[in-house]
Amino acid sequence: MFSPKLNPGYARQYREPVSEVCLGCICEASSNCDRSLGCEGGLCGLFKMTHAYWVDANKPTIPLDNPNDEGAYQRCSIDPVCAAETVKNYMGRFAQVR
């Protein structure tokens, strides 16, 4: 899982759209980082992401999964690493450069 203990300068160094610390804050605000959450009301996992959000993030998957298989979105959204990758992809795609 992502860890706020990683070097916060990492995101700046590699130009990632969101740092590990930021991911932790988004997780806390979205779900209190409750790993037991599944899908409810169209919102899934630690980041309470929607299917459309996952699609906009280029449909990341857990290892050996196929993004076109039924349930790939749900499996990704409840996996901490895949869910964090989804947020990073989404932020990278829609980042506003100032």
UniProtKB/TrEMBL annotation:
Task: Specify whether Transferase is a keyword of the entry.
Answer: no
Q: What class of enzyme is it?
A: hydrolase
Which terms does the record give in the GO molecular function aspect? lysozyme activity
EC? 3.2.1.17
Q: Offer one Pfam family short name for this entry.
A: Destabilase
Q: Which residues form a coiled coil?
A: none
Q: Which reaction does it catalyse?
A: Hydrolysis of (1->4)-beta-linkages between N-acetylmuramic acid and N-acetyl-D-glucosamine residues in a peptidoglycan and between N-acetyl-D-glucosamine residues in chitodextrins
**Taxonomy, superkingdom:** Eukaryota
The answer, when asked if Protein biosynthesis is one of the entry's keywords, is no
Annotated GO biological processes are: defense response to bacterium; killing of cells of another organism
Q: Which UniProt keywords apply?
A: Antimicrobial, Bacteriolytic enzyme, Disulfide bond, Glycosidase, Hydrolase
Task: List the PROSITE patterns.
Answer: LYSOZYME_I
- The record's disulfide annotation reads 27-33, 39-44, 76-82
For this entry, the protein name equals lysozyme
Taxonomic source organism? Nezara viridula
